[in-house]
Amino acid sequence: xxxxxxxxxxxxxxxxxxxxxxxxxxxxxxxxxxxxxxxxxxxxxxxxxxxxxxxxxxxxxxxxxxxxxxxxxxxxxxxxxxxxxxxxxxxxxxxxxxxxxxxxxxxxxxxxxxxxxxxxxxxxxxxxxxxxxxxxxxxxxxxxxxxxxxxxxxxxxxxxxxxxxxxxxxxxxxxxxxxxxxxxxxxxxxxxxxxxxxxxxxxxxxxxxxxxxxxxxxxxxxxxxxxxxxxxxxxxxxxxxxxxxxxxxxxxxxxxxxxxxxxxxxxxxxxxxxxxxxxxxxxxxxxxxxxxxxxxxxxxxxxxxxxxxxxxxxxxxxxxxxxxxxxxxxxxxxxxxxxxxxxxxxxxxxxxxxxxxxxxxxxxxxxxxxxxxxxxxxxxxxxxxxxxxxxxxxxxxxxxxxxxxxxxxxxxxxxxxxxxxxxxxxxxxxxxxxxxxxxxxxxxxxxxxxxxxxxxxxxxxxx
Length: 463
Ligand SMILES: [Zn+2]
Hints:
Elements: H1 2-21, E1 30-35, H2 49-57, E2 59-65, H3 72-79, H4 85-88, E3 94-97, E4 102-105, H5 123-129, E5 134-137, E6 153-154, H6 163-175, E7 182-187, H7 191-197, H8 204-224, E8 232-236, E9 242-243, E10 249-251, E11 261-265, E12 269-274, H9 279-286, E13 293-297, E14 316-320, E15 325-327, E16 337-338, E17 350-355, E18 363-369, H10 373-381, H11 412-445, H12 450-462
Parallel strand pairs: 1-7, 1-8, 2-18, 5-6, 5-7, 10-15
Antiparallel strand pairs: 2-17, 3-4, 8-17, 9-16, 11-12, 12-14, 13-14
Helix pairs in contact: 1-11, 6-8, 11-12
Bound molecules: zinc ion.
The site of zinc ion has 6 residues, from loops.
């Protein structure tokens, strides 16, 4: 009877545990890579064998619709928060916060005041608060102490650190005794050369080839470290690039007195802070000034841009049409390639590739939103997403295995509750099983006390 009892409990345990402990499979790992300014269609201009290798063995989403304004800092922060710029607070590369009375400037690396970043909580902070470890190689914002937390491993931003050095750090962090589960890697190209040359310049082929070679290096180093097949890797970018021209300049000096305003952020989306009492005069001077420039008072910015509800968005916004630049006058330098324009324009869209155990193979999808990356990352890492503007449902079709509805990231609270109940029941069953099993052993070895123990064990046998 005791033996029967043991097997019955063992069977119950075995039936219960797979659903309980499958959630404790090997710690999932993710590496998020950004090649700054890699426009979605660059891969069609050169053979790009390494990009195509990843696509063939993983997922390719042709275009990522990023967020307005299509600049570097706003979009990198969207990737790791799932929020529009007005909600995460990094509304531009150059900002003025009237409440903090502080300026944020990517160009001067004046970005280290934590309050600029603390309107949102980036995924590496959440990852670490859930007991994991993160490592960041130059990803924007990862060398700032946000909500009191820095990544477990990080590198102070220094443009001159080579790609190879950044990769080497990440591989060390993934393979160390206390490994990270989440890595972030940032590389400045092809953005820098795209600005200098313009995306339509034939020399961009060389730059794209060089970026492809960097990806090839990353893949080969991951293979050497035996990480390629076990880490989920996402390769994406913050924005595309559009061709500018000296024939497409809009000169503000022709329309408005430069003493009336401060230009907080620059072309092609110019953030204008009028001097005291000059708001209406500045706006009226500019609103119909040029057919390729749209000028909004802050409260009139279309809601589809999700770019209104933040004190760092200035009272007047001037947005150039694609390919146009807004300058004070022609003596101002301008770039042959630029981005920042309306995020519905395909020239602004970026690339998305993914490879790893979680992803389908040789799968193509037309488009996704950049805000959807965050819930996807949370799902891959098995962490709870914070409220965000993305949707996991929009991207779950790129995963190798369908995700049960109850495991969708937005339902993680339910999962945690179910997990807790499952573990508790499992633990109780193990204890009961062991108690009964020990009693059975005792019965076999000490026949004289068998009768007494059988009495105790009997109710359990009936349960
Ligand atoms: Zn960028």
